[in-house]
C-alpha cells in the first residue's frame, strides 16, 4: 500500500522537500536551510474578548484571546517564528468607542487592546486607516503603550518627517535545520491607505500627508533590502486586480511587483487570503497564497484568523534566499452544514485578563442609552409597507453621506439611500424581527436594527439602473394572479429579506400582479415585465439618463445580490465606517429620533377578490401600518401569524 502524500506545509516543516532522495554526499554539499514562520493578525478592531457587544452575547467568531491560542500552537510547531500586526487596532468595536469617548486615554495609560497584544510578543506592527479615527493625540498615546514598535512608510507629518519610522530592522537568533544558530536580520516596512486624508480629513488636514504605497516602497526598499536578510511588508491595504492607479487604496498586488520584498501581510478588506475571495485575478495565486510570486496572507478580521507564512530560506553566496513557501489563514471557528458555529479553540486567559476591567466597563457602556426613540422600531410589516426599522437606516446613511459627497465634489447630484429589513422572520423563526420599544436606545439596540458588519459605500447610477435595482428588489414577491380564487402567498421564502432594498429619496409603487423581471440569480428573465411604477424624484418622473448617488453597503455596491447598477464598477465613495456605526453616530447626534416611515413606496392595488396571504411574527398585531388592510387568519404550525392582505395600496 503506498504511503499517503505529504502536504506542502508538512514537507516544509519536516525538511523533506529538500532532502528526499538525496545521497549522503549531496546532503553534505547542500546549502544551509532555515525555516522561518511569519504570523499575522490584522484588523482586530479592539476585539479582545469573544463577545458581540451589539447583541450583548458571546461570539465565538471573534476575539484576539482566541487568536492567541492559535498563535501559541503555531509557535509550538516550529523553532523559528515572528509575530506581526497589520493595523486597525484601536477602533471598530464598542470597547474602542468606550475608551475614546467615555474612559479616555491619558499619558501613561495602556489601551486594553494594546495591553492584550503586549502579552503576545509581537515584533512589529503598522498603522491601519482606523487608527486615525480618534485623532493624532489619542493615537500617539496608544502607540506609547505598545511594547513593540510600529512602522509606516507612506505617512509624513506636515514638516515632511515620518509620523512613525517608515522601516525597522530587527535581529533575531534563528536555528537552521542542522541545529546551527544564525543572527537573522529582518527588515520590516509598513503602509496605510492614502485615503485616510479623505476619510479622516477633520483629524488629519494640515497635520500629515500620505504618499502612494508603491511610490513609498520604491523610496525605502533599496536601503532596507541592502540591510536585511528577510524583508516583510506590513501592508494595511487589500488585493485588487487591474492596472495600477496612483493612490490606490488596495495596492498589495502592485506592491508585490516592487523588488526586495520576501513576504507581504495584507488586510483592510476583511477577507481571507489564500482563498476564493481572490480567485481569477491576474498575478494572484489564490490557492497557494502569492502575489506575483511573493508569499502573502490576509487573516480575516476581528481576530477571526491567524495568518501563517512559512518560508524556507537557503544560504547561497553569502545571502539568505527564499527557496520555497506555504501560506494559510487558520480560523478560530468553523461552520457546520447547518450553519452553526463551532469554535476550534478556547480563549487564552492571560489575554482576557489584560483587558477584563475595560471589557466589563464596556458592557455597562453599551447597555446605557445613547439616545431616545419616540416611536417603536420594528420590522413586522417591513416586507409589505414602508417601515421605521428601514427608515432609520436610510436617514442615518443620507445624513452621513451628505458631507462626504460635498467633499468629493459630488454634492450636486441627488442623494438616495438604500436599506433593507434584515430581521424579517423567514428561517429565523417567528421571533426573528426587530422590536425596539419607545424610550431609551442603547448601542446594543442598534444591532437589532442593523445586523451585519457592512461598511458604507456610495454608488453613482442612472435612472435606468435605479429602476432595474428596484425591479431586482421586487423579486421578493411571488406573482399574484388577480383572477385566481385560491390563496396565494405574497412573499417568496427563498428570496432573502436583506436583498429587499427600499430606496429612500424617490417614490414608487410595486405591482405584484406582474412577473418578476429577474430570476432568483438576478438574471433578466422577463424583459417585458415591469413591477416598478410611478418612479419619481421630487414629484417628477425619473428619466433613464438621470444620475443619482445611492448610499448603500459594501455587499450591495460590490455586486452582492446581482443588482443593476451595483457591480463594483459604479462605486464613487468608500467610507471607512460600518453602516451600523453610522446609525449609532446618527442617534447620538440627533439625541431623540422619531423614525416614522415616510411612505415613499407602496404595493399597487390588486382586485379585492384575490386571496393574498402574508405571514409575520405574533407581535405584529400592535403595529399594523395605516392604510394596509390586514385580516388575521390565525397562527401557523411554526409559530407565525398569517394575515390576508386585501386590496393593498
Automatic annotation (TrEMBL):
GO terms for biological process: nucleotide catabolic process. The keyword Electron transport does not apply. Gene3D superfamilies: 3.60.21.10, 5'-Nucleotidase, C-terminal domain. Residues 1-28 form the signal peptide. It catalyses: a nucleoside 2',3'-cyclic phosphate + H2O = a nucleoside 3'-phosphate + H(+); a ribonucleoside 3'-phosphate + H2O = a ribonucleoside + phosphate. Residues 434-564 form the 5'-Nucleotidase C-terminal domain. PROSITE patterns: 5_NUCLEOTIDASE_2, TAT. Its main location: other. NCBIfam families: PRK09420.1 (NF006938). This is Bifunctional 2',3'-cyclic-nucleotide 2'-phosphodiesterase/3'-nucleotidase. Residues 37-270 form the Calcineurin-like phosphoesterase domain. It is found in: Cell envelope. Its cofactor is a divalent metal cation. InterPro entries: 5'-Nucleotdase_C, 5'-Nucleotdase_C_sf, 5'-Nucleotdase_CS, 5_nucleotidase/apyrase, Calcineurin-like_PHP, CpdB_N, Metallo-depent_PP-like, TAT_signal. Keywords: Hydrolase, Metal-binding, Multifunctional enzyme, Nucleotide-binding, Signal.
